[in-house]
Amino acid sequence: MLLHLRSRLLNPNFSSLFNFSYPNAHKTPPFLLTFRASISQKPQSQHASAAKPSRQVEISEAAQFAKTVLFVPPGIDPDDVTEDMILPGSNIVVGPYAGDAKIKEVNFVKSSSRPKDCPKDDLPEFAMLGRSNVGKSSLINFLVRKKDVALTSKKPGKTQLINHFLVNKSWYIVDLPGYGFANAPESARMDWSSFTKGYFLNRESLVSVLLLIDASVPPKKIDLDCANWLGRNDIPMTFVFTKCDKVKGGKGNRPDENIRDFQELIRGNYRQHPPWIMTSSVTGLGRDELLLHMSQLRNYWDNE
Asked: What region holds the EngB-type G domain (predicted)?
């Protein structure tokens, strides 16, 4: 029964999240999530304001769970969701738009210092965003299974341009500047933040933002602020938890505990929880599942 997944998804741990199996944008898509309130607001006021509709359509408990906790893509009725439709290590339901997720070819196209200089062929694209030491370049190399496609560096903040990588000659992975690196001048941080936001607000071919969150550390305010900004501006996103294999020394939380804490901070701000998925570029966790999720978003975007 679908409802027994509630405790596993709301309190994730490695043994429970990996038991699932699955079958082999700015076009106002229905996978656009509704942002409820600012993260800085108190949960009590959020829930109070959300509980005032004069008439509420009665729906099944399973459908309510699917609509609020799971990410149900276009073409799926929440009442029809079953356990085997959920991707392992995620809250993402596989729908009819999921298709060929294999990456056969990837080529670097260009680096742009301004959004208006980005490619103008209107191919769908996914933007990778995250703190500068979150493992963004490693994730890109991991997805395309090629070393050094995206430059990795021990110096956070080295990527300062919008980099486009063409996949299968049909869609883009976009590597955006990392945010939150401590050694960059404040003026440079503001400049990069400004042009990144300009890209999000004006890029009509953007299907979704993959917001990378380091699961090896507790939730960071800068990540919550970024999610807050994307939500308030109605920009579709998926939380991609990186470094899920990594456990910090000492008394730090495990990755699954950090993911749970992050979700608790986010959950009150969305009527439907944004899609999220666990990954590790070291162990291979989540690669095929993330690409399948991207395929269904991309295929829907292509067919609109």
From this structure: 122-300
| Token pair recorded at residue 35 | 């942002």
Helices 287-303, 136-144: crossing angle, 10 deg rounding: 80
Q: Decide: helix, strand or coil at residue 188.
A: helix
Q: Which of 231, 296, 294, 302 is nearest to 267 (CA)?
A: 231
pTM greater than 0.90: no
Q: Can you tell me the distance from the alpha carbon of 286 to that of 168, in angstroms, rounded to the nearest whole number?
A: 20
Amino acid at 28: T
Query: At 176, phi and psi to the nearest 5?
Result: -100, 160
Q: Looking at the DSSP assignment, which residues form a beta bridge with residue 276?
A: 239
Whether 146 contacts 194, CB under 8 Å: no
CB 84 within 8 A of CB 21: yes
Per DSSP bridges, beta strands 106-112 and 206-214 are: unpaired
Burial class (CB in 10 A: 0-12, 13-18, 19+), 40: exposed
CB of 135 closer than 8 Å to CB of 114: no
Q: Evaluate whether 262 touches 219 at the Cβ level (below 8 Å).
A: yes
- The C-alpha atoms of residue 131 and residue 135 are separated, in whole angstroms, by 8
pLDDT tens, position by position, for the chain (304 residues)?
Answer: 555 555 555 555 443 443 333 333 444 444 555 555 433 333 333 332 333 344 444 567 777 777 788 999 989 998 899 999 999 999 999 999 999 899 999 999 999 988 999 999 999 999 999 998 898 989 999 999 887 676 544 444 455 789 999 999 999 999 998 887 545 556 555 555 778 889 999 999 999 999 999 999 999 999 998 998 899 899 999 999 999 998 776 667 899 999 999 998 888 777 777 899 999 999 999 999 999 999 999 999 988 7
